[in-house]
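Could someone model oxa(dethia)-CoA with this protein?
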Amino acid sequence: MIRSVVRGFGAALPKQVVTNRDLEQKVDTSDEWIVQRTGIRQRYIAGEGETTASLGEGAARQALSRAGLTPDDLDVIIVATATPDNTFPATAVNIQNRLGMRHGAAFDMQAVCSGFVYAVATADAYIRGGLARRVLVIGAETFSRIIDWSDRTTCVLFGDGAGALILEAAEGAGTTADRGVLTAQLRSDGSHKEKLYVDGGPSTTGTVGVLRMEGREVFKHAVGMITDVIEQAFEATGTTAEDIDWLVPHQANRRIIDGSAKKLGIPLEKVVVTVDIHGNTSAASIPLALNEAASDGRIKQGDLVLLEAMGGGFTWGSVLIRW
Ligand code: UT7
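Reply:
Sure, complex below.
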């Protein structure tokens, strides 16, 4: 059977680092509160000229270079983002143009913090369905541009950045020993909208709006939803927590990450954590974390890697992939 195998990975971050101490100068907060409640120590914030498309382009170029490929070798670009450069055209098309790619197709995917999981699942379906041979999947965000910088309950949490994966069709035996995406589990429930949303949009206010979140309410649902969708991935593939080499979670809060790992019985040494250095970068957080752990040699070819995310919508999902 056809599998979607990882061929390359990359990432890009804005130049500017903003520490918790920097934020103490802007709002009534403290480094101690932020570290204790979230695990975040710093985040990267986009400056002038840095946008979701420019960061996504940077991540894409690194992934292409690592894979030894050029844009000519790609069939499809999918960008997971909730902070596009424009309402339309899609940021994926903008990145396609920046890469000088004049063939194939490009589109955006909107599932907020679960966007990268949704985009990998979509790329896998395209590849297995024969619609594409190579798909560039990007998670790219500039949440700093939709933050209310006077709201201490949200402005300390988010950061900007982008990460990318290139998935390529390869023949597999149809077992969990195959390299590539082994299963993807996606969920959503729109009844939770008011707990995490942006209070503007083209068809309602005609404005971009800013992020609004009832953090405690989101927190209450997070661990349960994450562990449910991971149990579904185990069930679909006949694998267990013991088989997992690396859990690469969406990086929203250290307490959610630790709580989920503990509930699943995955030791913390097998969990990739970047929330301390990146903050919550929404759809970019998983590919940024993958880039860290694959660049420094933790994630190696053949490792069983579990991705999970939960966020606005609510949306949530998991992907099990043999690297
Ligand atoms: O990525 C998408 C999914 N999003 C998430 O997963 C986020 C989920 N939620 C969370 O991570 C946590 O709920 C937060 C980190 C957002 C908040 O942590 P919490 O432990 O749930 O705190 P809380 O909202 O219950 O607030 C506790 C206290 C409050 O004061 P009182 O009412 O107890 O006097 C807040 O006003 O902390 C106060 N507070 C702050 N204090 C200092 C809230 N924000 C801050 C702040 N600095 N930045």
